[in-house]
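Look at one record.

>
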Amino acid sequence: MGKAIAKRIGMATWLAAVALLGPPEREARAQAFPANPIELTVPFAAGAAPDAVARALADGMSKLLGQQVVVMNRPGAGGAIGYKYVQSRKPDGYTLVLNSNSVSTAYHAGMMPFDYTAFQPIARVTIELPVLAVQASAPYANLKDVVAYAKQHPGQLRVGNTGVGSHMHLTSDAFFTGQASDVTQVPFPTTSHVTSLLGGHIDAIVTLPGSIAQHTKAGTIKVLGVLGSAREPVFPAVPTANEQGYTFQSDLWRGIAAPKGTPPEVVARLETAIRTTVQSAEFRQQGERFGFLPAYQPTDVFTKTIITEDAVIAKMMAKTATPPAAQSAAQPK
């Protein structure tokens, strides 16, 4: 009996000594991370709205982490190419993705075999508010005018968006369908919907503020309404759909995620750097320039946002019922 007690006392002493040797391995890994540059994949082309968000974020994170956060554009298949690349990488925090609602649109469109659960959410970074815009010379002053025209002329109003199955397509379809308005949705890759509107080939577009800010300043395009949850700072005088009498909002969120299985201490280190960057004056100024709103959410809240949005998108896409073959050209923004 005495030997057993002595053995237990000896084990307890050994454990106490180990505890005094230094921080646990987990904390040591967190302190050492990152030891190398971090790669941030953007699943869309350089120069587009998500690219602007990623580069503004990477700049701030690089300064805080002491390692370069390198932005890599991997566009194609509605974001699926970029998501597939990141999902296949080692979950060590050195490969990240700028995710968005597109992680759900790409999955529900059949573009990739896994959904949002293949990734570890780290933090939400921004929201962007879709807008409905027309040529400056168009005979519409607000959303009610354009909805009234669509009802009186079924199928004649041609509304451009950023690709079949994209968030802009789903937003446009959901808004007009909700008003019992029959319009013709016209998908375009990247920003060619803007040039098509300017050329008079379509009548309206549902798009993100950054793609038309310069045109509104030049007086060639006017915004009829914001289809998001709040007024858009780039167009502060333009009321939302809710303010114009329509119960509707369709925000586009963007955040940072990593492959599933990334160590929690690494996630926490990245989350802190993201929070500090997003809450900085420099990031806010970039948002004012490019048309995005800083909208930080920590890991747990961001995870809930993704789950909620995925359910909404699944229902919206089921109603749209676009054939997978047509969705292959999608370019969700």
About this structure: The radius of gyration is 23 Å. The CA atoms of residues 199 and 265 lie 52 Å apart.
